[in-house]
Amino acid sequence: MSEKSALTSAEVAHLADLARIAISEEELARTAGDLSSILANVARVAEVATDEVPATSHPIPLSNVMREDVVGETLTNEQALSGAPQSEDAKFLVPQILGED
Amino acid sequence: MTDTPQNRGTSQNADAPQNTDTPQSSSAQQTADLTRLTAVELSAGLRAGDFSATEVTRAHLDRIEQVEGTVNAFITVTGDVALATAAEVDRKRAAGEDLHPFAGVPVTHKDLVVTSGITTTAGSKILADWVPPYDGTVYRRTKAAGLPLLGKTNLDEFAMGSSTEHSAFGNTTNPWDTTKVPGGSSGGAAASVAAFESPFSVGTDTGGSVRQPAAFTGTVGVKPTYGSVSRYGVIAMASSLDQVGPVARSVIDAAALHQILAGHDPHDSTSLPGEVPDFLAAAQQGASGGALEGVRLGVVKQLAGKGYEDGVSAAFRSALDLAAAQGAEIVEVDCPSLGYALDAYYLIMPSEVSSNLARYDGMRFGLRVEPEDGPVTAETVMAATRAAGFGAEVKRRIILGTYALSAGYYDAYYGSAQKVRTLVQRDFAAAFEQADVLVSPTAPTTAFGFGAEKSSDPMALYLGDVATIPANLAGIPGMSLPAGLSEGLPVGFQLLAPAHEDARLYRIGAGLESALDSARGHSLLAQAPEL
Amino acid sequence: MKYEDAIAKYDPVIGIEVHVELGTATKMFDAAPNTFGGGPNTNVTPVSLGLPGALPAVNGKAVEYAVKIGLALGCEIAESCRFARKNYFYPDVPKNFQTSQYDEPIAFDGSVEVELADGEIVTVPIERAHMEEDAGKNTHVGGSDGRIHGAQHSLVDYNRAGVPLVEIVTHPIVGTGERAPEVASAYVRTLRDIFKALDVSEARMEQGNVRADINVSLRTSPEAPLGTRTETKNVNSFRSIERAVRFEISRQAAILEAGGSVLQETRHFHEDTGETSSGRVKSDADDYRYFPEPDLVPVEPARAWVEEIRSTLPELPAQRRRRLLGEWGFSELEMRDVINAGLLDPIEETVTLGASPAAARKWWTGEIARLAKQDEAEPTQLATPAQVAELAGLVEAGKLNDKLARKVLAGVAAGEGSPSDVMSARGLEIVEDTGALEAAVDQALADNPDVVEKIKGGKMQAIGALMGPIMKATRGQADAGKAREMIMAKIGG
């Protein structure tokens, strides 16, 4: 199992990039410190998480919750765009997407 | 009710008694101030025609006007919405139409609940101006029951925090001592109830966010069994842990609000199917006496003693003694895996947060910020928006969660944490073999001062959630009710029951509450200082 | 490098991911209508826009369709499966994660038989089929018109966001050699036919209901380990699939021949040039941080339900072909022509309505196909199986001969009504009026005494020489059999 408890600024920079959060150099160092301190503690979970223990992803087990294939209430175009920072031609206007086809 | 003076609530507001002896037991007619009545008393008075929904609503709006400058429990006050609902309730009552028993009793919603046409901020700059086009299920339900919405209460940003200081809309103060925090993240909800701005309030609890502020403010807070209340239209923090719950001034009132909120919702696949138990009846039964007789209270070894303030432990112990005197049996239970619960929580919660909060990117709704320099692309705008729109704690948790889920670390972190969850459930299952409910102090401390949370080491600060987190991991219901005071500040007493046994909490909780109230001669809140 | 040279030196391995949009009434996780068209951003709910607080709810019909697809591909159906979140930021993904399935797909371990043009059968191994949701659509708007200070931007429509998809992933397909491009194309065509037979999708390639991502890698020999692969995204016609695989094989071979190495990347196919171009390089950034979707609970298809679905599965194209070959007595070649012409359905229906298989095939692949080609129409636009069955019946009953039947078909194709309507309106029925026929026969006998003598002398084939004049006199409407009987009676009597 890979685990470790100290994060470098470079690793935090990569994570911030994955999480789409612009981050300053100063924040990088502080965040790396904070996260390292948290990770040093929480990594303890691996001590008791043995192979025999199944994972629980839902606290209350339910299964097969499905809905009928019946059309319900929809938003109007005006409602859909009501919170949009910018819109045009009934669509959401977003800045250019790099790597777009 | 037509002969009731229109300005009754407001005219009597000014000379409301500071500390009445038995405010909770007095009948509506004897009570000077409508805001001092419990929800159950308001319901009875409204149905009896002692006062109108409009009067009740105005009284609370006046109270809000009077104390909000000090408390700041609300992000948005919705007076017009509340008065419109109240007028509708009054009209229907006059016309003899069927009404919900609590129609006309005002309520507040934590500003995490989506309300169409009413700004919904999640306490964040990134949603500061977002006016949703739809209603969350819990808001639909309080509307359908005819509960006037007084406003949206303050919270830590996206419910992340234990002090409500992580809000983009200022601090909320603790009505018991305005130099202290009200707890969090449902700090606004708890403060609004403790300050008599609202009879009860809808909060959310992901790791203790209803119970801990209830403990800090001398109110009752409940985290129902996971799935008891729909999460549809409640802005998600950590999906597998979040649960909506009531804050109130009595166990019965909490049960009443839970009853209104609960029930299966096809929009939430994790909401429980089947009939909703009668929480209100259970609480009423518990309050009527004898509820503690023969009840086994399991004191969780891992949630007491070390790390808990002396005053907190003392108040908890004396409540236990009182329960024992009423016939309860006190047993100690051992839940060794709770030693890992906090760690598991601080992996699962940020992981789910990192994904749930990905949608706040400035593309479809909310704040959009362009980068100060460099190219303006969707990617850079997303990154700049999230950098500017999220507070430090939110960003910290997103980055932590991104790490815990990333390739190569998933098994060690998220995977292991989900296993700890299984262990916690097993420990609780074993403990409930020996005890009907498990008990502990709700929080290791009483309300702390402003700035304490932000200045301390993050892990030390997370320790404040140690007693409340296990219930969220296991999905079981938990309640905090006021045990007493420690140096003038309220101490919370937590009860936990097995999943689906929320009614047991209400019965035993109401029994303990009435024993405590009788012992001190009044409810704890009755001795809160006047604001 | 030339394709032939590339294939001579390298062994191609392909892998195909096919996405099919399911034809449910609503989306995968919300009750917005799943329909094509409509105003932008109108088929949306808070869920399909990813608004704060919105939660998904699984469409049971989509699960049923996924089970159908899994069964049709010979897959195991999971006893329990889950949804997972695939986390990545992109403006057309409203939640910035796609709700998909990761380590627990609903169906796995199947195979599908694919028939190539010459009748060779290739078995394609299926790794898995899983459920997921589609993304919205971006329209790129250039900056030349000066809008928003000349900056380029995109417009996003979320009508498609949340449309239910099933993604079908093959294991590496090995051993196809030079036929790799053909196999890839035939495989996707086979899937398309299966989706149609199952009635789980409109399955129209041109509308993007079925989209294919094609992985191609080369290795020096079938024993060598797999080479680095490229993934060509969204190739949307059978012909393009073939061309894209062919191009990639040649391109990669050229790189390897020059001593270079193939870059693991996504590529885009260009219809106009038949070439692929570099897209995005795969890197650490492709860390999707999959985890089980906490807002949804496991799907556990009950065994009885799966068996019920299995028992109601329609006949699949390959099974049907085998059955009809036996029932109809067509040759392999005839059957392939019928299938390639897309005429299996109308022919089967025509047979069901009473026509003989041979007659049904004859009319559909013959005269109707000819008329369709001439009119640039689909055969089924010109005639219905009911009309063709009626026509075949009229020929059978001796009311029409082939020549008249073709005229009747022309009338049917022109919209003049049913074959009998056309027949009576145009007066095309075989003449049964014995008076008119007898007059024509008498006249022919009188005009051709030499022929009559030959017949009397036992040369029966000479009767043919009388038929021309008889037909001419009756404007082709004489029943040749009746005329013959009459001649024999008159000469012999």
UniProtKB/TrEMBL annotation, chain C:
ATP-binding in keyword set = yes
Catalysed conversion reaction: L-aspartyl-tRNA(Asn) + L-glutamine + ATP + H2O = L-asparaginyl-tRNA(Asn) + L-glutamate + ADP + phosphate + 2 H(+); L-glutamyl-tRNA(Gln) + L-glutamine + ATP + H2O = L-glutaminyl-tRNA(Gln) + L-glutamate + ADP + phosphate + H(+)
**Signal peptide span per the entry?**
none
The gene it comes from is gatB
Q: Which HAMAP family match?
A: GatB (MF_00121)
Name by which UniProt lists this protein: Aspartyl/glutamyl-tRNA(Asn/Gln) amidotransferase subunit B
Keywords of this entry: ATP-binding, Ligase, Nucleotide-binding, Protein biosynthesis
Source organism lineage?
Bacteria, Bacillati, Actinomycetota, Actinomycetes, Micrococcales
Q: What does this protein do?
A: Allows the formation of correctly charged Asn-tRNA(Asn) or Gln-tRNA(Gln) through the transamidation of misacylated Asp-tRNA(Asn) or Glu-tRNA(Gln) in organisms which lack either or both of asparaginyl-tRNA or glutaminyl-tRNA synthetases. The reaction takes place in the presence of glutamine and ATP through an activated phospho-Asp-tRNA(Asn) or phospho-Glu-tRNA(Gln).
Note the Pfam families from the entry.
GatB_N, GatB_Yqey
Q: Which family does it belong to?
A: Belongs to the GatB/GatE family. GatB subfamily.
Keyword Transmembrane recorded: no
EC identifiers of the protein:
6.3.5.-
Question: How is the subunit organization of this protein annotated in UniProt?
Answer: Heterotrimer of A, B and C subunits.
User: What is the top EC class of this enzyme, as a single word?
Assistant: ligase
Q: Which residues form the Asn/Gln amidotransferase domain?
A: 345-491
